[in-house]
């Protein structure tokens, strides 16, 4: 009887570990994508700053290039940079808070109820709600 309950507990821990690992990889991939977007926006912004104000600048829309003022392109790149930084910061802080504080109980209710949904649609709270079992106790 005790062996069966230990086996069941082990299988539950194992399945949660697999789920947690998959969610963690999704979040890491999303963070990597956001880092790439941030870097691209930063480099584009730096190149735009070097151009004189009267330079004709073009925005790529699909296969078409549309003439846009330099100021419009710069503001778009600044916004992309800020959005990427905010998304990365919220992903990092939210997951760090959830995993380091171990605030989850057995029903999955937590102080981490609010979730961060970034452009790809990954819900960080889903990752945080998985919980962690340590020595047979949920933390």
From TrEMBL:
<dbReference type="InterPro" id="IPR009053">
    <property type="entry name" value="Prefoldin"/>
</dbReference>
<dbReference type="GO" id="GO:0009409">
    <property type="term" value="P:response to cold"/>
</dbReference>
<dbReference type="Pfam" id="PF01920">
    <property type="entry name" value="Prefoldin_2"/>
</dbReference>
<comment type="similarity">
    <text>Belongs to the prefoldin subunit beta family.</text>
</comment>
<protein>
    <recommendedName>
        <fullName>Prefoldin subunit 1</fullName>
    </recommendedName>
</protein>
<dbReference type="GO" id="GO:0005737">
    <property type="term" value="C:cytoplasm"/>
</dbReference>
<dbReference type="GO" id="GO:0044183">
    <property type="term" value="F:protein folding chaperone"/>
</dbReference>
<dbReference type="GO" id="GO:0016272">
    <property type="term" value="C:prefoldin complex"/>
</dbReference>
<dbReference type="GO" id="GO:0051082">
    <property type="term" value="F:unfolded protein binding"/>
</dbReference>
<dbReference type="InterPro" id="IPR002777">
    <property type="entry name" value="PFD_beta-like"/>
</dbReference>
<keyword id="KW-0143">Chaperone</keyword>
């Amino acid at each position: 009887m005790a062996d069966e309950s230990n086996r069941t507990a082990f299988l539950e821990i194992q399945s949660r570990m697999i789920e947690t690992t998959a969610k963690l990889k999704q979040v890491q991939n999303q963070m990597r994508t956001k880092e790439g977007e941030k870097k691209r926006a930063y480099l584009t912004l730096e190149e735009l700053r070097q151009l004189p104000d009267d330079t004709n600048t073009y925005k790529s829309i699909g296969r078409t290039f549309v003439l846009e003022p330099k100021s419009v392109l710069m503001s778009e790149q600044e916004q992309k940079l800020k959005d990427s930084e905010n998304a990365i910061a919220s992903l990092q802080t939210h997951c760090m808070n959830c995993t380091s504080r171990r605030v989850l109980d057995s029903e999955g209710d937590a102080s981490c109820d609010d979730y961060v949904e970034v452009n790809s649609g990954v819900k960080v709270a889903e990752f945080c709600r998985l919980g962690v079992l340590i020595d047979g106790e949920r933390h």
